[in-house]
Structure formats: structure tokens, C-alpha cells
Amino acid sequence: MSRLSAEAEELWYRAEVVASRDPGSPAARDLLERLLRVLPDRGEAYVFAHRKLGEALALEEPWAASLHLRKVVNERPDDDGAWGLLGLAQSLLGHHRFAVHSYEQALALAPHNPWYAHNLGHLYDVVFDDLDRALPLLERAVAGIAHFGDGEGATAQLAQQGRHEVVASYAHALMRRGHLVEARRWMRDLVRSGASPDHHALYDHIVAGQDRVLASLMQQVEAPPRRPVRKRRRTSV
């Protein structure tokens, strides 16, 4: 590994400071791109710059983010965070099979991460209609996010914020499997704790499904036979 120049060292330091404060800012992106131009090889600074650019661009420019993140996983195939971000970017691009591959890599490296399990399970449910794979992953995500939410600090706060989406995805898969009572129970608890309009709509959809099933069952129940009216016997006085 070649020794970094003074310019590269300075850019790396400044990029770390700015990216930690505001990773998506134009200033951070400019420093990271300048850093990449002066690096002599694919060392630690190279991976850092591409990873930070991938993080910054994943939501707004998923194609560009994917190019950066592919470079990261090529150099660091054990970086579960880069695989997870690559899965997100590829999902946004509609490259769902590659997204599944990326999330599977991330989950294999970090099996207790509930977000990887959720995103992968949601893809299997919504995109691939594979509930046999989706439900165990989403159940795992619900259990995992509850565990993380019980702690303290930034991870616990993030888990509490993301719990609604994880629970809603699990309830959606349960509903599609036909487990309407269980799906309704999960969504009822969620809407009581302050859910979004989309979550309320899902809850209403589950309730409507239960009503349709009940109505269908009631139609299949035969009405009891009516007893013939007995004529009253007249008696002479």
C-alpha cells in the first residue's frame, strides 16, 4: 500500500469531519470526490470515500450510489452495511433480484440485524409473492426490532422509529397468507400507538377482509328447518 500524500491526508481528514456532520451535503461530496482523485491505490481511504458517497446518494441517486457501493464490496466483501445499502439502491432501481442477493449477503454477515431481514422479507412478499420465504424473515425482523428497541442510545431510537414499518410489513404478509386475526391484532396495536394514514388503510383492509370471510361463512351455514305450525285442536264445551 502506497503512502498517502499530504494532500490526500488533509482531504481525508476534512471529508471525515464534514461527512460526519452532514453526509449528504455538497461540501462532503466534493471533498470525497477530490479525495478519490488523489488516492494512489485502493486502501482504507478509497473504501471510506466510496462508502460515504454510497450512503449519501442511495436514496436520491441510487444508480450512482450502486457504482460506489460495488467498489466497496469488491474490496470489503464482509462489509454488511455496504451490502445493505447496495440492496436498498438496487431495490429503488427496480433491480429486485440483485437487491435480494445484496440483502442476503448483508443478513448472512449480520444475522441479528432486523432491517436486513425486514427489507428482504418485504421484497419476497410484495415483489416475488413468496410468502414461504417472506413470513419467517418478517417474523424475525419483528422480534429483532423489539430487542433493539428495549435498549438505549441511537440504535434503540432508530429501532423505535422503524418498528411501525416492520410491524406493518409483517401484518401485510400475514393478511395475504389468510391469518387475518393475527394480522389485525398486530395492526390494532400499531394504530393505537399513532400510525400513518397508510397504516390505518392497511388496518381497514384487514378488517374488511375479516368481514368478507365472516359473511361467506354465514352464507354457508344452512338455516335451521322451520317447525310446522301445529293446528290447535278445537274442543267442545
Question: Approximately how much helix is present in the residues?
Answer: over 70%
Kindly name the structural category: mainly alpha
Q: In angstroms, what is the radius of gyration?
A: 27 Å
For this structure, the CATH topology of the largest domain is Serine Threonine Protein Phosphatase 5, Tetratricopeptide repeat
* Integer average pLDDT: 85
Shape: elongated
**Number of discrete helical segments:** 11
Q: What is the CATH architecture assignment of the largest domain?
A: Alpha Horseshoe
Major sheet summary line: none
- The tally of domains stands at 2
Order of helices and strands: HHHHHHHHHHH
What percentage of the residues does DSSP assign to strands (E)? under 5%
Reading off the top of the CATH hierarchy, the class of the largest domain is best stated as Mainly Alpha
* Cα end-to-end separation: 124 Å
Regions with little confidence, pLDDT below 50 for 5+ residues: none
The tally of strands reads: 0
